[in-house]
Specification:
279 residues, mainly alpha, globular, UbiA_sf
Length: 279
């Protein structure tokens, strides 16, 4: 394999991994782990989440390869033949295998929770995205991330229910907004998850409401609401408003990146909660 071919394959794998959201989820969970006191264990949290998210991203493009070809989605690296489907499949399985020992570094309780979260995400990629219950895997996979983080602490405490609700709402909001750019292509390919069934306008409304609900859940969890909390919450709401604005003006891809911004601000709110995250 030549250097040019290797570079092309690497670029293709990076694109197939859905790298921006993969990096965002990893960074968000790692920040949360550090703030609740995981210390050096944060490194293992980061590696476990990264390997799990890479497996999810790669499995998505692996499972959707035929559907993406029918839709002529040339932006997909498998469709444009930047990388082979078999290569993506192998990387997805390898990342999933690596996720197991890396998750176990946080203890078997936390690892079990993380396995359920990753399994739920794989189930969505394989079949869930075409079903009316498509939001459920997002709620499960994202809602369990704070549980994975806190169960790795000494004494294995559970996070507050508000933290789980907020994380689940972030996942649900991302799910609804993420379907909007590909709405027409999904319908042509018989992808009829819940967002496709209710339509783009309803998906936009539900997505933004859930993102805002996540912010409110975190604010209500914080014992003392000071200037920092108010500022961060305001920025999060502003990002949510910009999601609506960019979607309405025909820039749904840009709106999706604003969802990641909103999620990051929400995690900064999580960080300001500190020990309040743990029961």
């Amino acid at each position: 394999m030549t250097l040019a071919t290797s570079r092309r394959t690497f670029v293709g794998l990076l694109a197939a991994s859905h790298f921006p959201p993969t990096l965002a989820v990893t960074a968000i969970t790692s920040l949360l782990a550090y703030e609740v006191g995981r210390g050096w264990g944060t490194v293992f949290v980061a590696l476990a989440v990264l390997s799990g998210q890479l497996s999810v991203g790669w499995s998505n493009d692996w499972f959707d390869a035929a559907r993406d070809r029918r839709a002529d989605r040339v932006e997909k690296p498998i469709v444009s033949e930047i990388v082979q489907r078999q290569t993506v499949a192998r990387c997805a399985i390898l990342a999933l295998v690596l996720c197991v020992p890396l998750s176990l570094c946080s203890g078997w309780r936390a690892a079990l929770v993380h396995f359920i979260a990753i399994g739920s995400a794989w189930a969505y990629n394989r079949i869930g995205k075409t079903q009316w219950w498509s939001p459920l895997p997002y709620a499960i996979s994202f809602g369990l991330l704070p549980v994975f983080v806190t169960l790795g602490l000494h004494g294995h405490p559970w996070p507050r229910s508000q933290a789980v609700i907020a994380a689940a709402l972030l996942g649900l909001g991302a799910h609804f907004i993420n379907t909007i750019p590909d709405y027409e292509a999904d319908l042509r390919n018989q992808v009829r998850g819940f967002p496709q069934r209710v339509g783009k306008d309803a998906s936009l409304f539900l997505g933004v409401v859930m993102l805002a609900g996540a912010t409110l859940s975190i604010v209500f969890m914080i014992p003392t609401v000071g200037v920092l909390v108010v500022t961060l919450a305001s920025l999060s709401f502003l990002a949510d408003c910009l999601v609506v604005f960019e979607t309405r003006r025909g820039e749904p891809r840009r709106a999706w990146y604003l969802v990641l911004v909103s999620a990051f601000i929400s995690v900064c709110l999580f960080a300001s909660a500190g020990s309040a995250l743990v029961r």
